[in-house]
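hiii so my PI (J.) wants the whole complex modelled not just the main chain, which honestly fair. so below is everything: two entries, each one labled with what it is. i double checked the lines twice but i was tired so who knows lol
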Amino acid sequence: MSDIDAAIVRAIERGVRDLDDVRLPLHILLENQFGDLNDNQLELVGAARDAAETAAARLRRARDLLTLQAEQLRQELIRPADVLASLVASLQSRSAGRGVRVAADIAAPLPTMRGDRIRLQEALSLVGAACVAATADRGTLSISASAGDQHLVIAFDGGAIDPAEIDTTWAARVVAVHGGTFSVAGPRCEIRLPR
Amino acid sequence: MGPSSPRDGPRLTPSSDFLTLVRQRERGKLKLYIGSAAGVGKTYRMLAEARELRARGVDVVVGFVETHGRAETQAQIGDLEVIPRRRIEYRGVRLEEMDPDAILARDPELAIVDELAHTNVPGSPRAKRWEDVIWLLDNGISVISAVNVQHLESLNDVVAETLGVIVRETLPDWVLGLADQVVNLDISAEDLRQRLVEGKIYAREKVPTALANFFTAENLTTLRELALREVASSVDRSREEIVRREGGEPAPRKGVDRLLVAMSSNPPYTAALLRRASRIAGRLNSDWYCVYVQTPDEAADRIDATVQRKLVENIQLAQTMGAEIVQIPGGDVAAALLDFARARGVSLILVGQSRRSWWQHVSRGSVVDRLVRNAAGIDVLVVSFTSGGTNP
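here's the output for the full assembly
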């Protein structure tokens, strides 16, 4: 890590600690340490906590973007078909309310691969959630997966996502430290992971 | 979720360094109880299971359980070891939180961790309890945890629209997808409301409000349906919506995910090796073979009676664990194993670490070395064991 990156990480961690001084009182109020809140108080304090938690999560994500290294990853056998089946199921739940159809086209069989299962699962879920959000109401998000000689290719075709959004950037970083590539072109987002 | 610290030194780099892989601690398993609402009995069931597992020799601790003053739940904790909570003081207010560092220091096989969607006290190392649980799993500790269905992130909008309830503590759906086992504790709306009336869920003074608001029959029925649907979708890996390219039907299984455990006649750690193989096969949902290569020295008329007895015991053990037992005659054990593996489409071979001396390695070579050297296209996992004969 460069000196500048290290300085940014320190500044972010300081920001997270500063934010704790906002989050702690809100947490205490919502834990009813001083008695029950009425509905209006509950809504206001709850909304404030949501905002503080979101800000803290973004800061931590930014820190992790700078600090994640390949050496921190596990290398375990992964069955991509299972990961994708789980992903599709959760995206279907997520999208049902807006009438977005999630269609999956998974080549069978997908070979097992090595990687950090939890981080890849998180990364794919973040991308999937962003794609669902970007797909028009009652539109279709298509997810396809196939294996080439050297890569597993997972593509999302729906709405155009913002590659600069922090969660998407994190997903791209996770893919990159696995030795893969992450690209967004219009409504298509493509992830290539080494087999 | 950020990267977490490994317990046993640096993690593996993306190279095929098998020694590093072997030294890497296996990730813990996650079992999740999911329910439609508070009071369905998730905590009670987790604790009952903890007691059963402890009786079967599993090292279990209670990482965090909130009894909510319920006598039944308190009684289930009984003499289970409870890891003390971390205490945080802020302007005279005392807060308590699960202490993952203390759990890790205690190093149990299994920790019970309730309320997976909980938001940690600000200032905690991780923001959410589910992140703590993943950290414990990363460090080789298995976890049984619980969550109510309304906390699932993907259902947030549905719950808000249909129930008029905003759930602020959410659990990403992919965490549910990580679970090795998901159990839905299903209870009818009527039974749950009865438990509420009997004061088994909340203190009696809160019961009328709960019955009139969240715990309506309609809400509970909706949540029950959501829980059933969610668990079904997380478990069912062959949903109709997944269109497979090959004829629209799930493709027949090929051998790429089959596993082979190499069993020699009398190693001291064969039973532990078989247990490891059984766990891996279970996790991969794959078939597995237990292959014994009978060398000329181990022919029926030459094998030592004690070794023979041990061999039979281990074969029986492998059978009870679901392995397909295969005996192959051969002078070159490594070559015989690899021939079989290739013929049956095995993708992973498990073998115990060689116990030959340095001189034996030099003079006769090692089966493990030859396997690793010649197993192009097949992964070989060399499992090391402590002198106590237990898994690393």
